[in-house]
């Protein structure tokens, strides 16, 4: 089952995709795994043994609390998907359990990829005389039946102890359909390209 559309998918078509998507298509033991530190994911031998590949990108987008808040708002409004060839309905609430579609234009047809928000993390520590305040916001989404890949992806924005603001994309995935299996090297390149384009989209809003 693959959700294709010859024109830019309408809200109705996205809703139909979500209604048909069903449950997660990856092992539930990995549900929420992207909450772990990047190093833990990269060194997870069981994840690797099960055929999952890790994709990670971390980009400096500025400094200061104001930049962080703008970056957080960008993620909350799906600005990181504000691309000509990839989008998510910006009205989609970022809440655990919410299903949504990532719409991608690949060659001639658009592909609708169903996912579900697995978790949302929003933390902030107070600023003291000796230590600057740190904050982070992020959410992870898991792939559903009908997605070309199986796995999970996390988008996050972080204000670190050096007052720098970082945008990060972390995912683990493997092919879930013969189309993605035969074209997986291309899929991996697209993931890296998306991370770069997504970071640029966030930069425009900070």
Automatic annotation (TrEMBL):
Domain (DUF1990) spans: 50-200
Recorded hits in Pfam families, A to Z, give: DUF1990
- Name by which UniProt lists this protein: DUF1990 domain-containing protein
Lineage of origin? Eukaryota, Viridiplantae, Streptophyta, Embryophyta, Tracheophyta
């Amino acid at each position: 089952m693959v959700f294709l559309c010859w024109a830019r998918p309408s809200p109705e078509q996205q809703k139909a995709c979500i209604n048909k998507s069903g449950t997660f298509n990856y092992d539930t033991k990995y549900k929420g795994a992207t909450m772990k530190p990047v190093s833990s994911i990269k060194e997870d031998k069981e994840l690797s043994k099960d055929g999952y590949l890790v994709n990670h990108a971390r980009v400096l987008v500025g400094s200061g609390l104001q930049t962080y808040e703008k970056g957080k708002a960008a993620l909350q409004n799906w600005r990181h998907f504000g691309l000509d060839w990839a989008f998510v309905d910006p009205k989609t609430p970022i809440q655990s359990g919410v299903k949504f579609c990532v719409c991608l234009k690949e060659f001639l047809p658009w592909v609708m990829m169903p996912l579900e928000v697995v978790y949302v993390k929003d933390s902030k520590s107070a600023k003291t005389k000796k230590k600057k305040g740190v904050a982070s916001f992020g959410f992870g989404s898991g792939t559903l039946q009908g997605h070309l890949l199986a796995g999970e992806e996390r988008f996050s924005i972080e204000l670190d102890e050096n007052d720098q603001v970082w945008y990060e994309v972390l995912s683990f995935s493997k092919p879930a359909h013969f189309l993605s299996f035969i074209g997986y090297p291309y899929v991996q390149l697209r993931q890296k390209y998306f991370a770069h384009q997504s970071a640029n989209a966030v930069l425009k809003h900070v």
